[in-house]
Structure formats: structure tokens, C-alpha cells
Amino acid sequence: MIPSFRDHRTRQLFLSYAKDWVLIIALILAFFSLDILEPFHRQFSLTDKSLMYPYAEHEKVPTGLLVVVCFIVPLVVISCIALLIQKSPFDLHNGVMGLLLSLALTIMVTEVVKLSVGRPRPDFLDRCKPIPGSVDPPLGLSNSTICMPTDKYILSDGFKSFPSGHSSMSFGGLAYLSFYLAGKLHVFDRRGHTYKGFIFALPMVGAALIAISRTEDYRHHWQDVTFGGIIGVVFAYFSYHQYYPSLRHQESHKPFSPRIARLSDSDRVSTAEQALTADFDLPSNSPSRDGSLATDLESVRIDHSGNARRGDQSTAGHQLPSATDLNE
């Protein structure tokens, strides 16, 4: 028989993290809602050479590959470490929740800033395709009304240069993975193991390469990828420390304890008594149900350590479960 408190504690544990999951889902839904909005159309100059780069039809790191690198790869690594090495489903839960929180906060903030700033991309004029003969007004700048785009989405996306979403997302996922690995390896334990530093830096290098590729595709200015990277690292650091201690902590490899309180000694004893009662529960057609059951229960005592005994003798012939065993 499985004690009922197990199901109760499982529900308590789930509910204690329900708000976190709701927030993460809400942030992701908010991102998709904002992504369809029109960004601010900032004015520009037709003679600005930083906007004259060609529009690349094929990106070095398309969105699908970005999702694999910044989410699927960290998810697989965290799952393998938590289940195969740590052997802790709770570590898996906290690790994945922190990863999702990091990415959700990153994409949400990045999208809000993109829509608000409306900075033209380096390939904007190629997207805009200005009316032939267009020039900037005297003592002024041009606006998007002079554009003759073949695709309105491409033109609208041309005003989403700052900050770089690829850069922020790559650091939001891979920097989080770096922090997770650093905690498991005790990188900052002041013992100077060089190989740990390489493992810690490897995901960061991957994120940096993705950010650099955005300048090679002429999708972003260097300021865009720099600020995007900062956003990703900040939220990765914040999200990691919501569920794990400082990287300098002697138990940095362990997640924070569950948010529900542990069972007290009195709860353990009560649970053991319930289990013992169930253990002596006989079928209704048993001839010994009326008499011997009451006698047996009266002779059962549970000492302060949670061990079940019959009278002064240990129940060697009929081993009864202890409260500690039940809790496990």
C-alpha cells in the first residue's frame, strides 16, 4: 500500500511551481502576440552607407536552427546530466524551468525593445527599394513612404534591427547552459581546474558565433548583437539563480530545496500508524477480525524514532515498516 501522503505531497509540489509555469507560458504567448505588431518606422537617410548592404535571401543561422541550438541542445544536455549523472528528476525540473524562464524573458524583452526602437537594418535600403530619383528632403530625413517593397513583411522586418533576437536568444539559452555546467562542475571552487573553464566557455563561444553570423548576413549592426548578447546573459544569470545557489556555493551542483516543507516527526509517526492499521486490516469474512485485531493493535507501539514494535519484542517474524521507510 502506498501511503496517501505521497500523492498529497506530489500535488503540493506541483502547485508550488504552478505560478512559474503560468508566467513562462504567458511570456511566450505575449511574445507571439507582439511579434505580429508593426514596429516603429524610424526615419533614415538615403545616403547612409550603413544601410546599403545587400539583402541576404538565405541566413547562415535560420530561425529553425536557432531554436535547436539555443533550446533543444541545452534541454538534451540538462536532461542527460540530471537523469543519468545526478539521477534527480527534481534537478531536471528545475533545470528545464530555468532554461524556459531565461528564453521567455529574453524573447519578450527583446521583442518589446525591437518594436519600440524601430532601427533600420543594415540591408534596409535593399528591402525598401526607394522610388527612383528619391532624395532626402532638405535639412531632413526620408521615411518609409518612399519605399516600394515587393513584400511588406520584409520591409516591416527591416525596422527590427535593435537588438538582435538571434544574439539574445542564443545567449539566453547557451549562457544558461554554461551556468548550469559551471554549477555541476564547481568551476569556481578556487581549485583551478583548467578543463572546467573550457567546458564552461564552450556554449558561450557557440552563442558568440551565432551573434557574429548576424553581422555577416547584414541583418544587424554590431551594436545590435552586443546589446542582444547582454540581454541574453543577464536573463540567463537571473533565471539560473532562481532555482540554483551561487556558483561559488559548496553545493552548487544541487538545486534549491523544494518549496514545500518536509514532514515533521509527528507527521511521520502518524503516517506509520495509518500504515500499520492498514497492514492489520483483514477481510470482512475473517474469523479473527473482531477479536484478535483489536488485541494486536493494542500491543503495537511506535517509539520516538518511528520504529514499530509489538510489546517489548522486535517484530522479527512480521517486519513492520518504519516511518522513514514509508517516507522514502
From TrEMBL:
SUPFAM superfamilies: Acid phosphatase/Vanadium-dependent haloperoxidase
Main subcellular location: membrane
GO BP: any one term: phospholipid dephosphorylation
Keywords of this entry: Membrane, Oxidoreductase, Peroxidase, Transmembrane, Transmembrane helix
Lipid bilayer topology: Multi-pass membrane protein
Protein name: Acid phosphatase/Vanadium-dependent haloperoxidase
Transmembrane regions listed in the UniProt entry: 21-41, 61-85, 97-117, 165-183, 195-213, 225-244
Coiled-coil ranges from the UniProt annotation: none
One GO cellular component, as annotated: membrane
